[in-house]
Fold:
Amino acid sequence: MNENLNQKSRLLPMRDVTDLTSLSASSIRRLSRENKFPQPVQVTESRVAWLEKDVAKWIEEITMKGKAANDN
Structure:
């Protein structure tokens, strides 16, 4: 494996995304359609995945919004 490949460049299947976010698969698909969640990458004709770095960034943004709301 390429040593320069960052760990966060991994492709995550839906089950990993649901585990990381605690959202259901249907919520993830809906939020992606509404451009409120990272867009999936088409891996094969019948399979999509998400870039780990995109999901991590979304989680960080949601966490920061929650903290900001609690600070007010």
